[in-house]
């Protein structure tokens, strides 16, 4: 099976509490598990960063649904491409709330100067971003 990894960022239209997100995560995780999708969701101060990985068709079908979801806007694809193995295989959707210092750490990777609509890069071009996301997952996942 060929694996795909897609990373996007967006802004939520309304603020979500960690409790609200946990409630939403339950059905999302069940869906992702059934579709053989893994990944990570980071949220803080209305900023969303998500990594989705799995079979190519499943990843792109999920992303189409996500991009059309009215709960967020300014959905920008940061990276989209094949990967040799999953970076977040252990989670159907890991979740971490980002505090101010963590958001600042990511700002250099996901700022508007590095990506924009129509300019996704291959996931392998950002090994530092993947390593940083894995570090967040190891320390903060719920």
TrEMBL record:
GO terms for molecular function: blue light photoreceptor activity; FAD binding. Pfam families: BLUF. It comes from Hymenobacter cyanobacteriorum. The lineage of its organism: Bacteria, Pseudomonadati, Bacteroidota, Cytophagia, Cytophagales. This is BLUF domain-containing protein. InterPro entries: Acylphosphatase-like_dom_sf, BLUF_domain. Residues 3-94 form the BLUF domain. Signal peptide: none annotated. SUPFAM superfamilies: Acylphosphatase/BLUF domain-like.
């Amino acid at each position: 099976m060929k694996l795909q990894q897609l990373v996007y960022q967006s802004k939520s239209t309304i603020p979500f509490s960690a409790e609200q997100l946990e409630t939403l995560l339950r059905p999302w995780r069940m869906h992702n598990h059934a579709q053989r999708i893994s990944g990570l969701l980071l949220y803080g101060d209305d900023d969303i960063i998500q990594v989705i990985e799995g079979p190519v068709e499943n990843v792109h079908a999920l992303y189409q649904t996500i991009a059309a979801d009215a709960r967020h806007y300014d959905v920008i694809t940061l990276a989209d491409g094949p990967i040799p193995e999953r970076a977040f295989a252990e989670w159907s959707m890991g979740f971490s709330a980002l505090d101010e210092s963590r958001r600042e750490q990511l700002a250099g990777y996901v700022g508007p100067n590095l990506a924009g609509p129509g300019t996704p890069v291959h996931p392998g071009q950002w090994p530092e971003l993947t390593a940083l996301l894995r570090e967040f997952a190891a320390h903060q996942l719920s």
